[in-house]
Amino acid sequence: MGDLKKKGLGKKFISGIYNYCDRWCERCSLTSKCFLYAKDQKRLAEHRRKGEDPYDWKIVMKDVAKSFKETKELILKTAKERGIDLENLPEEEYESPDPTGHPLYQRSHNYMDLARKFLERLRKSIQAFGIELPERIEIIPSSVEDVETLREIVSCHEIISWYHTQISVKVYRALGSKMEKSEDKELDEIDIYDANGSAKIAYLGVVKSIVALQKVYHWNEDLQDDALTLLVEADRLRRMIDKKFPGHRTFKRPGFDE
Length: 258
What we know:
By secondary structure, the protein is mainly α. The protein has 7 helices and no strands. Helix 4 (103-139) runs antiparallel to helix 5 (145-179) and helix 5 (145-179) packs antiparallel against helix 6 (185-219). The longest helix has 37 residues, at 103-139.
């Protein structure tokens, strides 16, 4: 944990909390327990103190290179401690599993494509509603309630947008881990664990998206046909994940399910 650990801050973090989260730090209540979040905040603060833009591409690439260097040093140190000579490892042919042809992955990818198109329609509807809102409030005072409705629908757009690509990524990882074959029982258990954890993130993303889609469906009649199509697709995807990875139901995400 580097400098953070030296300062004694490592004790407050939950080990592995970032391994099975949805990476939506802005909506997470456990950022104070996350080492990666603290590390990133430290990085941002250092760059701002130097008058640098932490999101500038050149700065980001320097940080990535630094991170790779630290990771390499950690691997070399761990290998040395365990008596492993990384320079003389036996060469083994390895072919990573390809989940892209699996029906579940294809379903998740189809959902992603449909959601992308729907999000554009939803964005335009939100924009139109927002433009009309000030005039409506002037004429009908009760329309002030529409401000809260607009906030809720904007939040729904953010939820659907955040998860529509992540779901497919997590499904891919879950299937890849499940398809891994090893003669080592311990490695097999790790793969199964990772498959269930990744599947749980995908499943939760689908469920949250379904809730958001239901709200959008009731909000705008013009969007109902498209929203219903996406809802049906999302529910099919949810059931497929549940059937393929029943272990996700009992999977305990560090920090979130404890």
